[in-house]
Specification:
Its main location: membrane. It is a multi-pass membrane protein. By secondary structure, the chain is α+β, with helices and mostly antiparallel strands. The chain has helices at residues 2-6, 10-75, 78-81, 91-106, 151-156, 204-209, 285-288, 290-334, 352-373, 375-391, 393-411, 415-432, 441-458, 483-495, 529-536, 545-558, and strands at residues 114-120, 138-142, 162-167, 177-186, 194-201, 221-225, 231-234, 254-260, 263-272, 277-284, 438-440, 463-469, 477-479, 502-511, 514-521, 563-568, 574-581. The strands form four sheets. A five-stranded mixed beta sheet has the order 2-1-5-4-3. The chain has a five-stranded antiparallel beta sheet with strand order 7-6-10-9-8. A five-stranded mixed beta sheet has the order 12-14-15-17-16. Strand 6 and strand 7 form a beta hairpin.
Length: 594
């Protein structure tokens, strides 16, 4: 981070510092405070809603208690209790009983709430009575009570009231459902005698009227659920009566949040042990924190205005300070010694930066004059350089002389000496390479072969050399005389004293846009590979001048990612390899040296 800032100009530094130490801290602080306030708002509103749900549930329980009292009154009435002791009668008498019960029960029914009774009629003595598929309430007789969907749960309650969702009585092709309060009618004289079953249907209407306190929450969804989470009453069309509302089994009472369909809801749940029901309120969290969002938007606008003012102040600072500094930097960068600046001085000003720019322009004028005064001295330096170039003719003279000596020795019959002179001549010719710094791999291999032949003759062929040069790699360019120092090290420090057991392997390959040149020896001495690599990295001084020279020349040409490396050979000895880019022309490689 410090290095990046150090390389920036002042304008960028100002922008970065403003962002790091002003903009980001304010935004983070605003975000943290907003989240904290949002959490506090949700907690407070959740607690308030829980109290509201508890109070509303108590009201709903009182509604259930009213139905319990009314059904209790009906059960102990004389009209109902005498049914337990009426003997078999004629059809006329049964019809009179039906009329009496129907008239008695109709006194309780209203447009919304309807009272009905079911009696067992296994002998079909009341077949003249219409069934529940025709009438929406009244007295009904069933030949098989077990066929009724609600019968099992009501009979198991043993006279206690049960809330169940059932299909509406009467013509109901769409299977519209209603909530009923069901109760088994027992004899008050003999508790084991079952007289019939009382159903109070349509009770969702008074229950849903108790949801009025929730109307001020426009997006609130309120549902009364039974133990199986079946909806008994609701204020929303999204969840119909009889549908199942998924509520986690571990959620009994409290406030928690759930995400459904990308919308986060706050669930407020209360359970009543008296009626075994649950009252659930669902409301989008967004609706709860709407006031908080409004305040947050106001804060955001204030921050936007603040940042705008900060931007204007920064622009003023840039115009009055940074721009003059930037102009001075451009003047400094554009100045070349000996060339006059194409920039005129500002009028005199009290601005210190403007004064500095003017002084710099005057200084460049004086410096240019000094350069002109030294022009004659530079000409003399050029003459000296030209003389040095002339001295380079001598190696060519020596090369030509060696060629003459070679032919003279060859003609005299000293073939072996002639070959040595020829190899030495070849080494000098490739070393000169007409002034070129990069030569083809093949030329470098020829140079290395000539050197190896000289060394084989010198050491009386005490080692073997294996050449493995890939044909496609011969055309690529390499820095000249990089292979000979590595081969020399392998011979001197590896295999020179191994008699006939020493071996060298010299390989050249091209892979993935690179040329790999490796030299391996089977030297018996354990080489210090860490020290060799340390020398190549410049960590060891006053040693390894040959390989350092190779390393520096490679990296000067191709950059720091290429160069010479050393490692242990798997069997025995040392492996040295060079990695350079595979290029055919010096102009292909434009990477600056490392």
């Amino acid at each position: 981070m410090r290095k990046m800032l150090r390389n920036m100009n002042l304008m960028k530094k100002l922008i970065v510092l403003l962002i790091l130490f002003v903009v980001i801290p304010i935004l983070v602080l605003d975000l943290v405070v907003a989240k904290k306030l949002e959490s506090i708002t949700e907690e407070q509103v959740g607690n308030a809603l829980l109290q509201l749900v508890r109070g509303s549930h108590l009201t709903l329980d009182r509604e259930s208690s009213d139905f319990e009292e009314k059904t209790e009154k009906i059960m102990i009435s004389q009209e109902i209790q005498q049914l337990a002791s009426i003997p078999s009668s004629s059809e006329y008498e049964r019809f009179e009983i039906f009329k009496t019960l129907d008239k008695y029960l109709s006194n309780y029914s209203t447009n919304a709430i309807r009272y009905s009774m079911f009696f067992s009629d296994t002998d079909k003595q009341y077949s003249f009575v219409p069934n529940s598929d025709i009438l929406n309430n009244g007295i009904f007789y069933a030949t098989d009570l077990n066929a009724l969907s609600w019968y099992k749960s009501v009979s198991q309650a043993k006279g206690k009231g049960v809330l169940r969702v059932i299909d509406k009585f009467g013509f109901n092709p769409n299977s519209v459902q209603t909530v009923a309060y069901l109760r088994q009618l027992n004899s008050i004289y003999n508790g084991e005698t079952v007289i019939g079953y009382l159903l109070v249907s349509g009770i969702e209407t008074p229950l849903q009227q108790d949801f009025l306190p929730f109307d001020k929450y426009a997006d609130a969804q309120v549902m009364l659920l039974d133990q199986e989470n079946t909806v008994l009453a609701t204020n929303t069309e999204k969840f119909q009566i009889g549908s199942t509302m998924p509520v986690a089994s571990d959620k009994v009472e409290g406030v928690y949040k759930l995400k459904e369909g990308g919308v986060e809801y706050m669930h407020v749940l209360h359970t009543s042990e008296a009626t075994n029901t649950k009252l659930l309120m669902r409301v989008p969290v967004q609706s709860i924190i709407i006031d908080h969002i409004s305040v947050q938007r106001l804060v955001d606008w204030i921050m936007f205005i603040y940042f705008f003012i900060l931007f204007l102040a920064s622009m003023y600072f840039i115009q009055s300070i940074l721009k003059p500094i930037s102009r001075l930097a451009r003047i400094t960068n554009s100045y070349h010694p000996g060339r006059p600046l194409a920039i005129s001085m500002h009028s005199e000003s009290k601005n210190e930066i403007v004064l500095l720019s003017n002084h710099f322009i005057r200084m460049t004028d004086r410096l240019n004059q000094t350069i002109y005064d030294q022009y004659e001295l530079e000409l003399k330096h050029k003459e000296i350089e030209l003389s040095i170039l002339h001295t380079q003719i001598n190696p060519h003279l020596l090369y030509n002389t060696l060629e003459s000596v070679y032919w003279h020795t060859f003609m005299e019959g000293a073939t072996e000496s002639a070959e040595m002179i020829k190899d030495l001549s070849l080494i000098m010719r490739i070393g000169l390479s007409k002034g070129k710094l990069l030569i083809p791999v093949m030329e470098e291999i020829n140079h290395a072969e000539a050197y190896v032949r000289l060394q084989l003759f010198r050491y009386e062929y005490a080692f073997k050399v294996h050449w493995d040069i890939e044909e496609d790699a011969k055309k690529y360019l390499v820095p000249k005389v990089i292979l000979q120092p590595i081969i020399e090290n392998a011979i001197l420090h590896g295999i020179k004293h191994m008699s006939q057991d020493g071996e060298l392997w010299i390989k050249v390959r091209s892979r993935d846009g690179q040329v790999i040149i490796s030299v391996e020896d089977n030297g018996y001495r354990q080489a210090d590979i860490d020290m060799l690599n340390a020398i190549l990295q410049g960590k060891e001084s006053n040693r390894g001048f040959g390989i350092i020279n190779v390393q520096k020349r490679i990296q000067l040409h191709f950059g720091g990612s290429y160069g010479l490396h050393y490692s242990h050979r798997e069997e025995q000895g040392v492996r040295a390899w060079i990695e350079i880019p595979a290029i055919l022309d010096e102009n292909e490689w434009k990477q600056p040296p490392a």
